[in-house]
Amino acid sequence: MFYRVGIAVVGGLVLLAGILMIPYPGPGWLVVFAGLAILATEFAWAHRLLGHARARYDAWTDWLARQHWSVKLLVLAGTGAIVLVTLWLLGTVGWVAGWFGIRWTWLQSPFG
Q1: How many other CB atoms sit within 10 Å of the CB of residue 108?
Q2: Cα distance between residue 60 and residue 20, in whole Å
């Protein structure tokens, strides 16, 4: 029982970290699949979800590869917008701007 709980906690944390990393450059999807693989060692639902997620990911990348360059650029711009908004909300944009002496109030996070 303790082993299953440990797998659930570790796999869940890895999965959550991967989900948070998806829009950013780096191994977001790899970490998601790793978290699901950890969970799949003990839970049948995670095994099914891992297979489904792999199939959806492959379908998405295949679809995107067939698209016109303008669609690819739009997806890239959307991803970049998500990254910038998240960094702004976390206060990173205002913090980095401060390194260059830029103290515009609209660059500061609404949460800090």
Answers
A1: 16
A2: 19
Please state, in angstroms and as integers, the Cα–Cα distance from residue 89 to each residue in 82, 92, 94, 95, 107, following that order: 11, 8, 10, 11, 9
Nearest CA-CA partner of 85 in 52, 55, 104, 109: 109
pLDDT tens, 83-101? 899 889 989 999 999 999 9
Question: What end-to-end distance do the CA atoms of the chain give, in Å?
Answer: 42
* DSSP structure class, residue 110: T
Sign for the pseudo-dihedral over CA of 58, 61, 66, 71: positive
The CA distance from 2 to 17, in Å, is 22
